[in-house]
Amino acid sequence: MSSAPTLVQIEDIQKYFPLTRSLTETLRGHAKLAIRAVDGVSFNVNHGESVGLIGESGSGKTTLGWLISRLHEPTAGRILFEGQDVAHLQGTRLRAWRRNVQVVFQDPVGSLDPRMRVWEIVSEPIRAQEPGLGRAELRRRVAELLPTVGLMPEILDQYPHEFSGGGRQRLSLARALSLRPKLIVLDEPTSALDVAVQAQILNRLVALQSEFRFAYLLITHNVSAVKYVADRVAVLYLGKLAEIGSVREVLEHPTHPYTKALLAALPVPDVRRRRARYRISGEIPTLIRPPPGCRFATRCPFVIDRCRVEEPLLRSIGKDPTHLAACHRAEEVIDIAPETLMAMEGSGAAPSPIAPGSHLVGTTGG
Ligand SMILES: Nc1ncnc2c1ncn2[C@@H]1O[C@H](COP(=O)(O)OP(=O)(O)O)[C@@H](O)[C@H]1O
Ligand code: SF4
Ligand SMILES: [Mg+2]
Hints:
Blueprint: E1 6-18, H1 23-27, E2 34-46, E3 50-54, H2 61-68, E4 76-81, E5 84-85, H3 91-97, E6 101-104, H4 118-122, H5 124-129, H6 135-145, H7 165-177, E7 183-187, H8 195-212, E8 215-219, H9 223-229, E9 232-237, E10 240-246, H10 247-252, H11 257-264, H12 305-309, E11 315-316, E12 324-325, H13 330-333, H14 338-347
Parallel strand pairs: 3-8, 3-9, 6-7, 7-8
Antiparallel strand pairs: 1-2, 1-4, 4-5, 9-10, 10-12, 11-12
């Protein structure tokens, strides 16, 4: 794990998306309802560190990434970036701060304007920060940048449709790098790409980080990508952190039952060992009225009465003080391996599977 100073510290951050209600409902005094996409998350990312963020679809990963890059304004909480609270920055101060954090989106097609040429796309963040720069200087800077993502400077005047998925994601990466940000948020950067190209992009990310010392927040379904790229990993469940710690600790000694279930749901790469995957059972609670206790209680094989009434707080577990989990029974379940969940399923110790399995995948093929 990185011992570098803290770059960004998230404190009890929340993002609630209000549900629109009819005027009649409002007049009848119905309470304002909201989707609690991120509901009190705290963690930090150090300079030059890679933090992976995993969790099923809908757990709030993208919303959290957008909060950290201030594409969303938080409903509550603080975002300390090099000590300065940027949670509610607006106007020119927000624009000036934006050079510090860039986002690479999942969909390299949707995130690139099809009418813009390569040099215009890649220089977008530079033009926003330095509007006075001329065309020749912008083209020169982009031509210099392209080889760092494995593209030739000759492509300056091409359009995005002339590139493959991997090529377009390289363009997104070049655009994100153009201002040498301190943090790059990568939201499922390889999930739209085929396996061989995923591996190339991940290799490139690792090489770029060792050259430029960016910090990464890598949002992904791909646990192999987390193993390869990240120093630490955070596990998000329904808008709250279930577990966080070094990649080694969390993936080798998962403590939270949700993390164990996610890892048990991974496909086994060796065909001879292939077996039914664990499916996390039980109903997923709504983010509009989440249950009062542990949010995983409706699906957890280890649930006890206390879990349904008292919310478990994130706390240090085991020998490593930086390994935190939010579970009342962490000490009791710490030694239960993910594979054991499968056996419990068969023995009737856990509820029967009704929910679709996790969306996580285990291999990148490279
Ligand atoms: N702009 C929005 N307005 C309303 N609800 C949203 C918005 N963005 C996300 N959500 C909801 O917030 C929850 C978390 O979404 P998201 O952050 O996209 O999760 P993930 O990236 O983990 O799949 C989902 O229930 C989603 O429908
Ligand atoms: S607090 Fe209870 S319900 Fe929640 S994960 Fe731990 S054992 Fe399961
Ligand atoms: Mg997402």
